[in-house]
Amino acid sequence: MRGYVYSKIRQGLKKTSFAFTRREYLFMIVMGGIAGAVGGFGAIGFRKLILAVAQLGWGNVTGMEGKDLLSMALVAPFWLKILIPSLGGLLVGIIVFFFAQEAKGHGVPEVMEAVALKDGRMRTRVVFAKAFASAICIGSGGSVGREGPIVQIGSAISSALGRWVKMSGGRLRILVACGPAAGIAATFNAPMAGALFSLEIILSELAALRFIPIVVSSVIATALSRHYLGNYPAFEIPPYDLLHHSELLLYLILGVLAGVVAFIFIRLLYGMEDFFERWNLPEFVKPAIGGSIIGCIGIFFPQVFGVGYESITQALHGEIFGVMLLGILVAKILATSITIGSGSSGGIFAPSLFMGAFLGGAFGQIVHVLFPSTTAAPGAYALVGMGAVVAGTTRAPITAMIIIFEMTANYRIILPLMFACTIGLVVSARLSRESIYTLKLVRRGVNIHGGKELNVLKRLKVAQVMVHEIELVSPSATLNELFTRMMASSHNHFFVLGNDNRICGHISLATLRPILKDYETVRDVIIASDLMDHNVAVVKAEESLDMVMQLFGKFDLREIPVTDKGQLVGTIRRSDVIEAYNREIFKLDMSSSFATSLRLQQKMHTQRVSLGGGFQILEANVADEFVGKSLEDLRLRERFGATVLTIKREPEAGDEGDSYIHPEASTVIQRGDTLILFGLQRDFARFPTG
C-alpha cells in the first residue's frame, strides 16, 4: 500500500514539475555563474600560492627568483633536494592531521563522495586546509598536480555558497559540481573539458538542469583565467598530424601500453597507501618521510618535483631522448605514489599527463626510428599518450580527448587521440574495474557506480532514525512484570540494566514464548537475569545505518540501544531502519524528477557494495523462480540471511522512472523487479539472480 501511495505522489509531482522548470533554470544559471567566478578566482589564487611557496623554499636559496620549479631544482645542492620536500611534507602532515583529514590525498574522490552521499555538503575549513596543504606540497617539490586540489577547493566553496543560500540537496549537488568545472577550466584554459569533467566524473550523468549551470560556471572561470593569466594553451606544441592511416596500428599499441601504465599507477598508488598505513608512527610524520624519499629520487630525476609542466613541454618537443624518458617515467610513477601514499595532498591528473607524455615520447622515438617515412614526430605520440593514460586512470575518455585538444589547440591529431584514449580505457578497465578515483571510495565501502540505492545506508545516521523511548528492566524483575510490560509495549526487546547503570543484556518476546505454557507456575520465580541474552550491542547516535545493519545481521537482533556522549538516549529498530531507507530513496527519487538523466555507466544485473565484516548490500534483478511469490513465501531471510531493504519496480506504461516498494510480507514479486538486499557476502554467493 505504501509503495502504491509513493508511486501516485511521484506521478503528481512529475505533472507539476514543469511549472517550476523556467524558474529552476534561471536560479541554477545564476548560481552556476557565481560558483564559476568564485572557482575561477580560487584557481588563480591557488596557482599564485604555489608559486609563492616555491620561491620561498627554492628561489631564495638557489638565487633563481622568478624561475620555474624545475629550473630551481636543477641547480639546487643535493641536500636541499632532500630537505625542502621533507619540511614541506611535515607541514602538510600537520595541516591535514590537525585541521582537516579531507585535505589528505588527491581530493576528487572526496568531492564524489560528498555529491553521492552527503547532498553536496562539505566542510568550509577544507578550502583553507586543502589550499595551504597542497600548495606547500607542490611548491616544496611533492610529485603531484594542482587539478585535484583546485577541484576540491572549488567544490568546498560552492558547497558553502549553496548552504549559505539554503539550497536543497538536489540543487546543492549540482552547484558543488560547478566547482570542479570552474577549477579544471581555469587551470587548463579548457572550458569544454571543465564541464565534461564534472559531468563525466563527479556526477556521471547528463541532464539539462545539470548541464547548463556547469557550462556557465566553466565559461566564466575560463574568462577570468584568460583575463588574469593570459589566453594561451597550457602547452605550446608543433602542429602534429596523422601522416598515414597505417599509423593507427601503432597508436593502438600505444593505447595498450597506456592502459597498462595506468593500471600500474593505480595499483602502486594504493599499495603505497597501505604500506605507509602499516607504519606505527604519528600520521603527520609520514608525509615528511615521504618527502625525504621524493628528495632522494629528485637528486637523480629532478623532473619529478612539482606539477611537471616544464618537463611535459620538453617531452612534447622531443628534447629528452632514449632511456632517459623511460627512467623519468618510472621515477614519476614511484614519486607520485609515494607522495600521495604517505599522506600528502595533491592531484593525480597532471602526473597522469606527465606519465602519458613520457611513455608516448619513448614509444614515438622507437617507432620513428623504425618507420621514419610513415610516422609523425615523437612529440605526436607524447601528445596522444597524455590523453590515453588520463583516460586509463580516470575512466573519463571524453574528458581526456577534449582536454588534450583544448590544451594544445591542435585538432589534427584528433583521430589517433580518440583511438588511443579508447584503447587505453578498455585495457585499464579490463585490468582493474575501478578508476583511480573510485577505488579510493570502494576501499571505504562506497560504491559510486551502484547509485543511490546502494549508498543510502552510509549517509543516514542513527540519530535520524532512533526513537527516544527504551524499555529498561531490573535484573530482579519477575516474569509476571516482564510479560505485563511487553504486552503493553510496541518494543520487541527489553534491555536489562545492571547495578553500574550499563546495559548487561536483553530479553525478546521470542525468549518468553517457550515458557508461557508454565506461566502460572513460574510467574514469580523466574527473573530477568535468568532469561536475558548477554549478546547485546550498543551504537552511538552519530554512527551510520550501515554499521547498525551489520549488528542486526551479526547478532540477529531487532532492536539496539543508542548512546550519545555515554548516555543512553533511545533505541533503534530494524523495521525503522528499513522504513527510513525507503523514505530516503523516495526523497532522492523526487529530487531528480525535474530532469531526466542519462547514466554514462552501463547498468549491471547485479551490483554490490561491501560494508566490512563480511556484509554487503546487493542490488539484483529477481530470478524467474521468485516471480509471482510473496516475500513471506520466499523466506529470503531464512534461506539466504537476506534482509530486503526495498524493491525497485520498473515503470508502468505512461509512467516515468522506477518506483520503490516498501517490503512487506504480503508484497508479491513481479517480473523486472530489482531487490535491494542486505546480508553476508558468503550467503549472497548462492543467491539466485535474474
Explained architecture:
The chain is elongated and about 100 Å long. With 690 residues, it is of the alpha+beta class. It has 4 domains: 20-229, Clc chloride channel; 247-284 and 297-442, Clc chloride channel (Orthogonal Bundle), CATH 1.10.3080; 462-578, Roll (CBS-domain), CATH 3.10.580; 588-684, Alpha-Beta Plaits. A hairpin with a 5-residue loop joins strand 3 (493-497) and strand 4.
CATH architecture verdict of the largest domain: Orthogonal Bundle
Q: Roughly what percent helix?
A: 55-70%
**CATH topology (level 3) name of the largest domain:** Clc chloride channel
From the spread of the alpha carbons, the general shape counts as: elongated
Count every helix, treating DSSP H or I runs of 4 or more residues as helices: 30
The number of domains:
4
Look at the helices and sheets and give the structural class: alpha+beta
Classify the beta-strand content into a percent band.
5-15%
- For the record, what CATH class of the largest domain applies? Mainly Alpha
Mean pLDDT over the full residue set: 82
Q: Record the strand order, biggest sheet.
A: 9-10-13-11-12
Largest sheet report: 5 strands, antiparallel
User: What is the gyration radius calculated from CA atoms?
Assistant: 29 Å
Straight-line distance between termini: 26 Å
Low-confidence stretches: 13-20, 590-604
